[in-house]
Amino acid sequence: MLNAMIVEAAKDNVIVAIEPIAKGDTVTYNCAGQEKSLTALEDITIYHKLAACDIAKGQPIVKYGEHIGLAARDIKAGEHVHCHNLEEHRENLDAKG
Amino acid sequence: MNFYGYKRPDGRVGVRNKVLILPASVCASDTTRIISQQVVGSVTFNNQLGCSQVASDQQFTMDVMAGYAANPNVYGTVVVSLGCENCQMDLVVEAIRERTNKPLKQVIIQEAGGTLKAIDMAVRYAKEMVEEASLLQREEFPMSELIIGTECGGSDPTSGLASNPLIGQLSDLIVKEGGTSILSETTEFIGAEHILARRAATPEVHDRIYEIVHRYEKALQLVGEEVREGNPSPGNKAGGLTCLEEKSLGCIHKGGHSPVNAVYDYGKQVEAKQGLVIMDTPGNDPSSVAGMVAGGAQIVVFSTGRGTPTGNPLAPVIKITGNKLTYANMVDNIDVDASPIIYGTKTLESLGDELLKLTQEVACGKQTKAESLGYTEMAIARVCNFV
């Protein structure tokens, strides 16, 4: 059963839990028609984010295909991604429009 | 597609038929509450402003007051002022007359001779107006007459995944019908402004989108504050939204995929048949909704993740959630369950068609849950402290 989803399959490095997920559970999501799985490293509250892959400290966290912040520390695939490990970062987006 | 609405003498079309008891300032607000309680069919609100404001703040207040009186859901207005406030009766009347020629009466408490005499006058004016309004029959109009205000409040990650995309789908359908959809909440464009700017219909609109975002950030920085300090809110974070960028990227889905044709300042008159437009409003729900209703929105479509009862004195508010737990928990407040989009049991397209039909029904008179529960709270945006 799918218990997570990815918004922009080609770009995002976080996925969203769409059911409550417990530590050690298999997390399964549909990635551009292909089923992908990983193991949750901690409990994830429904609709919270977890890392789809390892993200090194300082790297952008990507959701909706866009940068939502930077990894405040190294984050492992299956870890909860939230205020404790995401550093807010205001990008200058003037040139991107 | 058509709906049955009320034709106004200024040519616009309402979906409700209310008499507005308009307080020109905080000092008239208790009086309008007492008046409205005496007149079934009338509405009022608590205006906390209208006096001791700097010019830019007073402009917001004046635009909301004039816009409320001109909103096509209003048959006519009884303005009540104290007499000595900055928003003087003649200024308020002039601002209303610039927007509409609908029935208008005035009561100044100090000139009437105090509370009881002012109430007596205003109640009689309002009762007469309600009687006239009650004679009006609904007539058939195309959906292109509708201006839809879009809002999100108490957001969580499901807002960006389901309820906001569903509102975006409705917005695109309304645009296709030839109507107008307003995307609001400038604070929640921050981090997503480039995506909206790419959809600007003209270079001027492109530049205005960046301008309102930078202006908002700068205004807060001028008083030593940062937008991020209260946004996302504790409830947004508990729901799983981590930062403002994530919230914004979900928020802008309410605008669907149509080109952005114009950017309006807060509370200004929005023209009909404009397609998708933006209004520069705060993220605070009741004041953002008030700005769009002042702009002429007859219906507000409002997404929520955590659940919220928010309504409006003039416009029916359709409440939508993409969070299946919130829908079950607050079904008394929420009109539409958008969670099937997340779980793949219904498509965005089919739910969009259902929402368009509901919007048509609400335009024809169907009560929303916020309406039937009597929710009318509102606020007016502000720039700085009282003077």
TrEMBL record, chain A:
Hydrolase in keyword set: yes
Stored SMART domains: SAF
Domain SAF: 12-87
Superkingdom to which the source organism belongs: Bacteria
Family annotation (InterPro entries): SAF, SAF_UxaA/GarD, UxaA_altronate/galactarate_dh
CDD domains the UniProt entry points to: SAF_AH_GD
UniProt-recorded Gene Ontology molecular function terms: hydrolase activity
Sequence intervals crossing the membrane: none
Keyword Hydrolase: yes
Keywords: Hydrolase, Lyase
Record protein name field: UxaA family hydrolase
Origin species: Agathobaculum hominis
UniProtKB/TrEMBL annotation, chain B:
Gene Ontology MF term list: hydrolase activity
Keyword Hydrolase: yes
Residues covered by the D-galactarate/Altronate dehydratase second domain: 5-134
Entries under InterPro entries matching the protein: GD_AH_C (IPR048332), GD_AH_second (IPR007392), UxaA_altronate/galactarate_dh (IPR052172)
Domain D-galactarate/Altronate dehydratase C-terminal: 143-382
Keyword field: Hydrolase, Lyase
Top-level lineage group: Bacteria
Family from the record: Belongs to the UxaA family.
Xref: PANTHER family: ALTRONATE DEHYDRATASE (PTHR30536:SF5), ALTRONATE/GALACTARATE DEHYDRATASE (PTHR30536)
Name recorded for this polypeptide: UxaA family hydrolase
Species for this entry: Agathobaculum hominis
Lineage, uppermost ranks: Bacteria, Bacillati, Bacillota, Clostridia, Eubacteriales
